[in-house]
Amino acid sequence: MTLAITGATGQLGRLVIEALKTKGVSEEIIALARSTDKAADLSVTARRFDYDAEETLAPALAGVDTLLLISGSDIGRRVAQHGAVIEAAKSAGVQHIVYTSLLNAPTSTLGLAAEHVATEELLAASGIDYTLLRNGWYTENYTMGLGAAVAHNALIGAAKDGKISSAARKDYAEAAAAVLVDPALWGKTYELSGDESYTLSDLAATLSKTVGKDIPYVDMPEADYAAALTGAGLPAELAAFLAHCDVEASKGALFATGNELSTLIGRPTTPLAEVVAATVS
């Protein structure tokens, strides 16, 4: 069996390939990436694969049995991009697609949910067997800002006391690898989230303990938080998106109680304190 991974040079794609190697899989692994040069260090076969260049898609999928379609990062264009990949997979004879969707996509209030739901509908209509990995929030979405929190002695956000059931990116990668190599796990929809939930006040307390000084959580109105992120150098569109997600988190959009992720990976999800320590070390 030949496995192909889209977005292979991205943060999640790299971890999936690493997890597959750790499992000692005998299947051929193909890294699909816009730049094959950036995939050289993955030490697997690399093929050019650009969501925005349809002529690269079907040829890159030749001989592929199972495809991991990692959702694109270009919000607003993903339905068209994913649709092109699915059509290319049909023409190339791909037998099975695993797609990284969003936790509770059909009912999620997050603005990016609609594109995931639309992609799920395209898969359902494609005639190709598929599996849905509805990934929850990555813990790294929050810990990537801890350096600034330490520097400014405050962790800012707009999530109030909303609980967040995130998991480390490597946890989701291991789940994807587990599904890719085990046909017994195919054809299902998995709602994936971390075993533990926390508020941003909890995150601030964990950070404070890790660095040995008090770093409080400061909750802000959505517009003020977006402006602060823009002032820190983030593009306005991304800042607005992150502020929106925080507000929805305050309403429970990032909270879940299931243990499907830890079941798939055969261990508890990575504790928040471990991700925080790794980030600030």
CATH topology of the largest domain: Rossmann fold
Could you name the CATH class of the largest domain? Answer: Alpha Beta
Distance between the termini: 40 Å
* Alpha-beta classification: alpha/beta
CATH superfamily of the largest domain: NAD(P)-binding Rossmann-like Domain
Number of spatially distinct domains: 2
Low-confidence stretches are none
What percentage of amino acids are in beta strands? 5-15%
Globular, elongated, flat, extended or rod-shaped: what is the shape? globular
- Average residue-wise pLDDT: 95
Walk across the major sheet and give the strand order: 3-2-1-4-5-6-8
Q: Sheet bearing the most strands, described? A: 7 strands, parallel
How many whole angstroms does the radius of gyration measure? 19 Å
Write the element-wise H/E pattern from the N-terminal end onward.
EHEEHEHEHEHHEHEHEHHHH
Helix content: 40-55%
> In total, how many beta strands?
9
Number of helices: 12
CATH architecture of the largest domain: 3-Layer(aba) Sandwich
Question: How would you describe this structure in keywords?
Answer:
2 domains; UDP-galactose 4-epimerase, domain 1; 281 residues; 7-stranded parallel beta sheet; 12 helices; 9 strands; 43% helix; alpha/beta
3D architecture notes:
The protein is of the alpha/beta class and 281 residues long. The chain has two domains: 2-134, NAD(P)-binding Rossmann-like Domain (Rossmann fold); 136-168 and 192-256 and 266-281, UDP-galactose 4-epimerase, domain 1, CATH 3.90.25.10. Helix content is 43%, strand content 15%. The chain contains twelve helices and nine strands. Strands 3-2-1-4-5-6-8 form a seven-stranded parallel β-sheet, sandwiched between helices. A two-stranded parallel ribbon has the order 7-9. Strand 5, helix 4 and strand 6 (129-135) form a beta-alpha-beta unit. Helix 3 (78-92) runs parallel beside helix 4 (113-126) and helix 8 crosses helix 12. The longest helix has 15 residues, at 78-92. The chain is globular, with a radius of gyration of 19 Å. The model has no long low-confidence stretch (mean pLDDT 95).
